[in-house]
């Protein structure tokens, strides 16, 4: 586990989701001024804009809370600039590209530029505002490392007793639903009754050949399956769990329950799903159970429950250390800055 990767959290109580300026709006009265290396005015319109952003997301805050956040944000950024923490335009370009790559990885598919831009605009108002947020987050992370690097790089690893205690208190959270590993021979439905009837009849013929021993399951995959994604790997499509809502919505309850009733090594007759016709072979069938510390968190994962809990507790310790570091830096910077709060609710 790379500890530096943990220093990527958004700054709690410092960075707002988007601190958009109101330069193009009607100039409003000052809510506060902040001066560490320069005088900066926070307007009432900025406070109102941020307040509405939070309210629109269902977050209950007061305008005084928002003002304190904006003050903390400004004094922190001024402190970082004073102490030599900067970021270039090329670095912001890299941060933007990395954020796009991360979004694609989380979505499990390629994301177009238009899709990414639309999401940035939805969350931040504009791509420019999103890039500014990335820049400020990077500055915050670098300044934290500069000022509190030793504390943040030396987070203690959770002990065995801490891991065991967490497991005992949360044991029910580690229930793994019944699951099977399956491969299939598949022909999709077309919506045309005659064509679909022919597809079903073709797979019934294939099932007879497999069960009679005329061909192997693997040979039938190559000869009959129209699932190009699994055709060259023996029809393997991974794991189906009993609580997989996405699979049940896509394939239908009847198909999923039929597959989950199969035993290891069993090859089905033709099964109909919402999307097409299948011949299924199950290679592994696990009953639902509470996982032990040495079990993997999922059939397709190499991370054990012990590894997972260790990571969760380490992240928790890291977040606590970061919060402490932030508060200490803020306290120091606010004591050095001239802050004049004018806003009254």
Q: What is the count of helical runs?
A: 11
- Which range does the strand content fall in? 15-25%
Quote the CATH topology of the largest domain: Triger factor/SurA peptide-binding fold
Strand order of the largest sheet: 5-4-7-6
Can you describe what's shown?
- This protein is an alpha+beta fold and 345 residues long.
- It has 2 domains: 3-157 and 304-341, Triger factor/SurA peptide-binding fold (Orthogonal Bundle); 178-287, Chitinase A, domain 3 (Roll), CATH 3.10.50.40.
- 51% of the residues lie in helices and 15% in strands.
- The protein has 11 helices and 9 strands.
- Strands 5-4-7-6 form a 4-stranded antiparallel β-sheet, sandwiched between helices. Strands 2-1-9 form a 3-stranded antiparallel β-sheet.
- Helix 1 crosses helix 2 (63-82).
- The longest helix is centred in the C-terminal third of the chain and has 32 residues, at 305-336.
- The two termini are 47 Å apart.
- Mean pLDDT is 90; it is low at 1-26.
Key features?
Triger factor/SurA peptide-binding fold; Chitinase A, domain 3; disordered N terminus; about 50% helix; four-stranded antiparallel sheet; about 350 residues; 2 domains
